[in-house]
Structure formats: C-alpha cells, structure tokens
Amino acid sequence: MVLLDGKKLSEEIQAELAQKVSHLKSEGKKIPHLAAVLVGNDGASETYVASKVKACERIGFGSTLIRKESSVTHAELMTVVQQLNSDENITGILVQLPLPKHIDEEKVTYAISPSKDVDGFHPVNVGRMVKGLPCHLPATPYGILMLLEKYQVQTEGKHCVVIGRSDIVGKPMSILMSRNAYPGNCTVTTCHSKTKNLKEICLSADIIVAALGRPEFVTGDMVKEGSVVIDVGITRVPDATKKSGFKLKGDVHFESVAPKCSFITPVPGGVGPMTIAALLMNTMNASALDY
Ligand code: NAP
After folding, report:
1. What is the CATH number of the domain that holds 246?
2. β-pair partners for 34
3. Closest Cα partner for 270 from 255, 248, 290, 291?
C-alpha cells in the first residue's frame, strides 16, 4: 500500500511556485494576488481562509483578507466582489463558503469575474471544464488529479466510483475522471444519498473517491483488494484529548480500508493540502486566462 502524500506534494508545488514568483519579481512583472472574503466567525472557515492566506504569503503571492460581519447585507457583499473584479492588482478572488442564510450564495459567487474565480465555481469555468477548455478547475478535484498524476496512478479503463455529487467536489470529480485525458478515461459511477446497493457498487470499483462528509463511512468490507481510495472528507469530531477539542476524520475508515489498497490518501495530509496547492496554481495561472 502506497500512501498518497498530499502534504509532501503540496510543499513541492508551493516551492516551485515560490521560484516562479521570485522570477516574476526579478523581471519586474506583476505577481499573483489572491483576495479572500470571509464573512462571520465560523471556526472551520477561519482555519481554511487563514491557511490559504498564509500559503500565499509563504510563496510570495500578494494576499488580501477582507472580513465582514455575519450581518453584512447581500448588496454590500456584491459591492466588495465588484470592487475586487475591477481591481487590476487582484488576480484571484475567493469567497469562503458557506455564507450566512440571508445571503444568496450563488449570486455572490457567480458575480466573481470568471477569470479571477480561482475556486472554479463559476458556471463559465464549469462549462469550460466540461468542454475541456482552459479554465480554473475546482480546487479539490484539481488537487486530486495532481496527486494521481504525481504517483502515476493508472486510471484508463478503470471503474471509478465517486461518492457525493456536490458542485464543488463530487460532480466535477466525476466529469474529470471520465474525460478523455490522463488522469481520466475512467468508467465513472456517481453515487449519492439515494443510491441503492452502494456497497456492491464500491466493491466493483478500482478507484473510490469518497466525498460525502460522513466520518469513516467507507469501511474495509466495501473495498476490493488493490483499490485506489481517495478520501476527501474532513469532519470535525469531538475529542477531549485534543487542545482544540476536536480531531479531523475522513470519510474512510483508514484502519480497515488501507490494508486492501494499492494507493490511499491519509486524513489529514492527503486531499486537504492538495486543495490549497490547486488554489495557488489557479491563482498563478489566472492572468493567462483572457475570458
Ligand atoms: P456536500 O455538499 O454535503 O455533499 C455531500 C454529498 O454526499 C451529497 O451529494 C450527498 O448526496 C452525498 N451523500 C450524503 N450521505 C450519503 C450517503 N449516506 N451515501 C451516499 N452519498 C451520500 O459535501 P461536499 O462539500 O462535497 O464535501 C464532502 C466532504 O468533503 C465534507 O466532509 C467536506 O468537509 C469535505 N471537503 C474537503 C475538502 C478538502 O480540501 N479536503 C474540500 C471540500 C470538501 P445528495 O446529493 O443526495 O444529498
């Protein structure tokens, strides 16, 4: 069993990006600049945004964190996005989700200029992804593709089962694994909460991508020998022994699944750091997109 080490690969990618940035600086060229918008005080969102901003600083990107109270109005937030769209120094924009209930999340994220939408959530980016055109790929699936490529995991002709059909992970992952490219060329089955016989479907999978947000849902008896298992889940589970009061659990029961796998991602240290690396790659490449 080989551990797909997302932490190590993410560090390698960040080191390469840092070199590119210092090259851009030495040539007096514009450097990538990510603006992150954070609304409210949700603990997990604070942690995610802080790690994204810190990563930008570490590799020499510009970064701006815009914080708004959870009482911010929809109109105010739209104005923030529009200002960032027209700011030439800002190359990438992300609005950390979820947003408070009174804000129309779709309207806000769709207001981001597609070429600055480094999360890859805008319908223009989604459409371009489906068509195989240059675009910002959604960060988590993009990070998974880079991990599969780095470890030369064979995907062609394989049966890939994606558990979850969210717009940010499951749906794009299914599309990307079925595209005519590497990594891809899989026969894909997309599963969700209404899927029947999930265990049987998983047992026929060569590759499983678990993205449902249910801690340790995928167990050893659901996985065939030699499978590749990608664990996207991150759930905070209470743990009194930890200073934070919680520990992070994936969607895969690692102890029973790992011994059957050819490759598996750990949680933490697998898909999470790769999502950050992918976001930074999108931010680096944003100025090359002209739509
Ligand atoms: P989501 O929007 O809640 O979607 C969950 C999906 O799982 C839905 O499609 C749902 O089906 C399906 N599902 C739920 N229970 C199921 C069950 N018992 N059997 C089969 N399918 C089931 O979640 P998400 O945003 O995609 O995130 C999924 C997990 O990944 C979460 O733990 C999240 O924290 C984590 N995540 C991690 C990263 C990272 O960087 N590592 C990034 C993003 C998300 P329905 O459509 O029928 O409801």
Report:
1. 3.40.50.720
2. 63, 92
3. 248
| pTM (2 d.p.) | 0.97
* Domain shared by 151 and 258, yes or no: yes
Distance from the CA of 251 to the center of ligand 1, in angstroms?
A: 9
- Please say if 251 is a catalytic residue: no
Report yes or no on 154 lying in a domain. yes
Q: Within this chain, do residues 171 and 102 fall inside the same structural domain, yes or no?
A: no
Known active-site residue 52? yes
Q: How many domains does the chain divide into?
A: 2
Q: Which CA distances in Å does 137 have to 22, 91, 122, 140, 253?
A: 25, 16, 10, 9, 28
212 assigned to some structural domain: yes
Backbone angles phi, psi at 108, to 5 degrees: -70, -50
Nearest CA residue ID for atom 35, ligand 1: 233
Catalytic residue among 5, 96, 117, 251, which?
96
> Is position 277 within any domain?
no
Q: What are phi and psi of 268, to 5 degrees?
A: -80, 175
- CA 77–ligand 1 middle distance (angstroms): 26
Whether residue 79 is found in the same domain as residue 150: no
Tell how far the Cα of 213 is from the centroid of ligand 1, in angstroms: 4
- Out of 145, 193, 209, mutate this one to test ligand 1's pocket (max ligand atoms within 8 Å of CB): namely 193
Number of the ligand 1 atom closest to the C-alpha atom of 250: 32
Q: Which atom of ligand 1 is nearest to the CA of 194?
A: 47
Give the model confidence (pLDDT) of 86-123 as tens digits.
999 999 999 999 999 999 999 999 999 999 999 999 99
- pLDDT tens-digit series, residues 150-208: 999 999 999 999 999 999 999 999 999 999 999 999 999 999 999 999 999 999 999 99
Q: How far is the CA of 249 from the centre of ligand 1 (A)?
A: 13
What whole-number distance in Å separates Cα of residue 221 and Cα of residue 204?
A: 12
Annotation says 8 is catalytic: no
Q: Could you tell me the residue range of the domain that residue 94 belongs to? A: 28-116
Residue 244 and residue 201 share a domain: yes
